[in-house]
## 1
Amino acid sequence: MEMIRLGPVQRIARLLILALGLAYTIVPILWIVSVAIRPPGTIVFPLSIIPTSFSLENFRDVLFSGGTGARSGIGVGPYVNAAVYGISSGILTAIVSAMGGYALARYDVRAGRVLLLVMLGLNFLPSAARLVPLFLLFVHTGLFNTRVGVILAYVAGAVPIGIWLMAGTIRQIPVRLEQAARVDGAGPFTIARRIILPLAMPGVLVVATLAFVDGWNAFSLPLILTQSPDAQPYTVALQKYATGDFGIVWTGLAAGSVLGVLPVLVAFALMHRRLLSSGGLTGAVQG
Amino acid sequence: MRISISNLTVSFGPTVAVAALDLTIESGELVALVGPSGCGKTTTLNFVAGLISGSTGELLFDDRDVTSVSPQGRNLGMVFQDYAIYPHLTVEENIRFPLDIARIPRATALESVYSTAELVGVADLLKRRPHQLSGGQRQRVALARALVKRPGALLLDEPLSNLDAHLRVQTRAEIRRLQSELKITTILVTHDQSEALAIADRVAVMDAGRIAALADPATMYARPPTLNAAKFIGSPQMNLWDLAEAGSGFARGALVDLVGSNVGSSPYIVGLRPEHAVVDAGGAPGEIVLREVLGRDVLLHVRTGDSLVRVMVAAEAADGLYAGQRVHLSSSLANWHAYDRDTGSRIELRPPVAGVST
């Protein structure tokens, strides 16, 4: 393909736009890191991005200790909770979405098309709209303030888009491959495990990663659905920690946020690699 | 393994794909199902494989009723038109797949994979992935996968139609060689009548969900048992005329001795293969309107009176023949075919002895 040639002015404009876009996405993260590595209690205002002194004490404070005054950090527990919620939600969402997506892609489900549209539509609803009904439901069913409850709520939120994505992925896999496998002697479970799942893996990974990140980052849902610190993820715990009796502790908040951002970056990096390395469907069927 | 299909009817909604079809394929036989798109040939094959629902009818493998047996219980090998090779597996894993499913020990399985790959000619491709293979190689891998478990029967669904012409002719001979070597009962579905004639023991011409004709290739070509077969078998197509219609002047003229002077009212459709129409010194006068070079032969479209006749002439004999030229056409009575217009069944216009000479 012929590349479009840019004049010097256009090149400078392109550079500027790219630089602005980059700054927009990266500066906040750098800023948070910069605040997180200052000594605790350092005054954040006036604004400065370059820290004047360096310390990892904020991280220690958030995770382990009392730090300044009588306040104690949030500990490792909330991060573990968030991980449990995120990973469980990722796995469950992937399983449920793969099965639901397969059904909608392969079977002539009555109103399947409508069902898909409704599910996509549900995804556009603001998640806040679900909060109160979910809260009432959970209080009445005993799921309130339980880990299982939080996970179920996450999965319920992530499954619609998951099924939508999986139905699309599975439609790309030729039915012919399943027919060939049946003639080759494979039953439904063997076909699912040895043909469909490997070929749908890119989609499964996307769905699982999205659900994990959603679960890890969720704030308003666990804020409403949990009460005891034992069940709270780091997002909720951090909010309570940072808005203590002393006003907002910016350095602590920043350190906690940095700790929260890392797993998400790792998850995306991993998914990115797997997505690129999966061969796709090239060569499956001819013509 | 003998395959008997009896009274098979398949409907997709209001469309009847196959209507009350009966067919028995003897053990070790290669039967070709041939016909135009939508004639029900692939549907019939899928019924034998167990891949379609909504059918009525009975299927026997030898004396075992397998009508309600799932595909995985039928022990068949199948090659699809688009090959359906598993894209995430290597060639070796593809061929090994049916054996893995059957829980054959790895060492035994690999032995079978190697010998089958050798047989089919993909032994040097075993470590490749499907996207690194050419169309012909994929076709061979699919064939190896179908054969590796020594199935009771081999089902081939248009296995050659995605290959280029040269490879197609080569591969069909290969398939025939393998099939007779392994003595495996085989059903070949194809829309290419020359392919069916070339390698089948018997050819079934299908039309509108029924078997229109069933015969060995020589008979199918020399004396097509039905009008449908006469229309479908042979390329270029047989010249066909309805004797009751205008435009059949050439046929009426040629057949007047045989059928008598009242041929005009006969409910006959008569036919003459293009290679049996002869450019001659005498006969019906006409004019060449189109000249097509087919390679070894030349096909002339000749207008004679109110009829248009396709005439096939050997290339060396066609040197002096060009469009616009006036010629005379003759034919031998023994080469004509006749069919009942309403039932499509073949009518012998002459003693069988004369028919052999075609």
## 2
Amino acid sequence: MGRAFCLVAAVLATVAVLSGAVPALTIPLGAMLVFVLPGYAWLGAVRHHEPQPLASGALVVMASVGIVIVLGLGLNLFAGGLTRSTWVAELSLVTVAGLAMSSMRGCASSGLNWPFATPRGASPATVLKITLAILLVGATGGISVASQNAWIERQHFSELALTRSGASPGVYVRNLEGRRITYTVTVWVNRQRAIRFRVRLGSGSHFTRRLDNAPVRRRGEATLKVTLDRPGARSPYRVVLLRPTKRA
Amino acid sequence: MIMTVSTREQPSTGAAVDKRPVTVSESRGSPPPDDAGSGNALATSVLVVALGGFAVAIAYALSRAEAPGATALYWGGQALIILPVALRVLSPSADARERMALLLAMAAVQSLLAWCYSPDQFRFPDELQHVRTATDILRSHHLFTPNSYLEVSPGFPGMEEVTTAVALLTGMSLFHAGVVTVSAVHLALPICLFLLYRELTNDTRIAGIATLIYTTAPHYAYFNALFVYSAVALPFLVLAVRAALRSYQRKKSALWIAFPFLPMMLTHHLTAFVGIVVLAAVAIIVGLSPRGRSIGLRLAGMTVGLSVATILWTAHRSPSTFSYLAGPIHDVLSSVTRSGDSEHPKLIAYGVPHWESLVAMSAAGITAACVLGGIALVSRQDASRFVRLAAILGLTYPALLVVRIVAPTGPELATRGLTYGMLLAAFPAATALVRLWPLHGSGMRAASAMAITATLAVGAIVTGLPPSWERLPGRFHVAAFESGIDRHVTAGGAWAHDNWLPYQRVACDFSLCSMFAGYSHATVSTAASPMYYATSMAVFDQSLRDLTSDYVAVDQRWTRQTPVTGRYFFRDVLEGEHTWPLAPSLFVKFDRNPRIDRLYDNGPIQLYDTRKVWGG
């Protein structure tokens, strides 16, 4: 990797991040701006040369991380703080400054090479094995995500909650049962049934309703209890309640 | 000054990687490797390591599906990860590039598996402490917002700065940005270690083997691949020590130490303080070495300067760090000074299979033997005084074993301490292994070296994290680490996040508190256990008034499971005494109290509003 490449990458990263480009661009370029470019530029500027590509790569990453940590303190001093635009501006400037210093001091670019490459290039067998290893890594990630999602999806339940937005309480129901369910929601005021309704929810969806019509003469004087029932479960399936704030 | 610890018997790789004068040891050894063959052999090893990672991921998937065979596949996968790396790194025929690439490949698979264990969100409690600091930075765009979950965290925001920068610049979620950050640093760590040991010994084989031995520190593979601040600080410690060595070996300025030290100081308190101790030790041994007095003085001056900076930073930004770190030190000192009435640690943890305890003890014994043998070997060789003194620093390892035995919290302290102690112990232990498997050694000697390394690696897995009861994911445990956070707990935390104001005081168990404090910005109570255990309404009411909690969480599964960690709650007054699950009658009081509202119910978990009890 040369200084020119580094400079182009810094400019591209700045443009991509600030313009809010697609993730396919912002993820690699943004990551380069944090993990590669500042360290690469400044290791060149201080003439720290490590001929081993892997060693060089590790030092570049750690130098970049160190620079980001110290620069973050600087950004914290400004009113704007640590935002996307201030990070981009600061990291780009630092990278360009490092490259300029490296260029003025006439330092050689360090080589970040493919570690499996030999002077004569990688053999087809090597390329095949590395390709297989990369595919295995991809499969490892894929299986883990799929099995974790399946594990989460197997934990079936429903949520019932009372929310208090403004003067009126609200009832919140969320279906995490893995299938569509028709719930029965019953609102009780001082042990007397006040409202009853059914709600049909698909898996993963939720329902919220404000209890404006609950027949409470003066709010806070009665116990408000909400029960949730669903077919095939003991009754009540879920219970929430608000106690009176004042004695009637 | 170039030094080597090699002797007539000791081989070398013949693969000096830089332009320094080649030492006697490096000029001898195996013939130059065939480039194409070497690349192909390396690719084969990497493929096997990747296959091992795949096998472990399948084991995780089987465990989540409660299918049989997960444990066997897990250990088979670990063998595929460890053995090819150990074989080639130990082998005299490997070159520096191959050793580094394999150590890197192993670190990459470890990072991958740390993510595969919980691929959708952070679950480990320490990670959630830092999630809160990182979220505060994203929300306020500034550092140092107080964090009641881990008071010292905002004062050392290095990891969170990098993570939030990645999140902001790439658009990734905080979770993915955190995984990328710690993975990048975890990948750099073995290479930094290799460079450190190469700087010390000028021998790439010893450097590779020392790095391999370091990877058998209990927290290397998993804990230090998590979103925790020590993981990010560790490579900076290695680079700071390397810079100190370079100031002696290559006459570089001692000022270079400051460049890795400053980010370390801003990232993790303990690593910074350990760094000061190690730099002081290096300054002393340099001062005692031939022609090292003036460099030693410069190193000492640099160390003093960095110590002052660290103390000032800590005192200014996070003064509670001193008491935070003093607790464990006080534990160790009081255990040493107190007579036989002191509380002794459980050397064999609850529920750990006997074979695991046996392997752990064997690994500790073998490591100690290798360290002591290595120190003896180095002292008998024609090594320089500097190298001989550096080897003596390996005595840190037996010292940590003593801490493990005498201190009440010894196992945890020693396990954490080995992250740093192994830095010093790996070099003499590597010297012993090199002696065991010399260049023209018999197959038996090679097999012995492999067996030792495999035992150390298995010992690291069984003493490190995740503990045996949650080594494979998928089974819920109440009040546990990752296994305590299932969909019910996550849903409760998400609801609290959406409905509670930040900094509400909450009483909860260990797992629920992790969620509430990490994701919902709640202030969790560490004194709530007497309230849960209260059997009379009067005591219960009084406990609630004393706690002044805004909310209380109850998980009905406490009545069905005992806690594998020995306690349900932070500072549980009945810690270690839970031989039966809690009685269901203990939780009826929440629904009977006329001043408590039940706001949330998802089956096992109920959240109560208790503000009316104390007039909040």
